[in-house]
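BUG: 3D viewer hangs when loading the predicted structure for this chain

Environment: internal workstation, default settings.
Expected: structure renders.
Actual: progress bar stalls at 90%.

Input used:
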Amino acid sequence: MSKTGFSAIIISLLFSFNLLAQTTNQAYWTYIDRYKEMAIDQMHRYRIPASITLAQGLLESNAGRSTLATEANNHFGIKVGGSWKGPYVLRNDDAPNEKFRKYRSAAESFEDHSKFLQGPRYQGLFRLSITDYRGWAHGLKAAGYATNPRYAQSLISIIERFGLARFDTKQSKQRHTKTGGTSASFFDRHMVYHNNKNYFIVVEPGDDLATISKATGVSRRKLRRYNELPKDYVLQPGDILYLEKKQKEASKQFKDNPIHIVDYNQSMHDIAQLYGIRIDRLYKLNKQGPDYVPRIGDILRIR
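Structure tokens produced before the viewer hung:
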């Protein structure tokens, strides 16, 4: 499918892709893709901006990877306090062995977060516009949600880096028009993101190259080629999958800090996908051959 043709589908779906100061942490993208509808649903029922809910979840739970999130389904760092009668876990925070709420599911955590913000301490926030994420971020800090002096700035940075403000509308799902049943169903379940002059999706459970190809109009051969995948590779939930050819180097936003520090269990392919660049160019930028295996802490150039 041509770039013009694919752009027409994007326009017809009314997606907004002007992400500010793009970042490339796959865990964050996966978290956003997984919980965006949950945050939007909470916004509809409790009038809390979805961008704020997602940003707090990302920050407080380290994109769902914190011990509190993995062991207690607590995505927002809410302590026992108040009238909480449910289970809890002990964690060191501002003081040793503080009690944090434990939930049966992430959904229960999102629901309790919304109810928590209904308390008198946060009532002033609800006088703000649903699209005033900056006001909400500063209001949460002023009301004492967190002790970190840069809490508001951290939330705003996450919202703007990942373009989360686009969720602060009253649409509960991605709209679809003129795309037909299969494509419409596919784009109901998938957000299309933009990174380094390219479009990508985050693979959902049940996806394969055939269904993605049919919905996007990009052939399976091109999907494999664009993403440098072997013929026998089976897509995994959370994979980043580009819909056009990747670039030779990372986006200009990284010109002042053009490096990547290798994290746990990251391959050269993982890093290339994060920044939307081709693997052979990543090797060349770092004067390495295809036998090079990155180790934790290695510093790699990305442009």
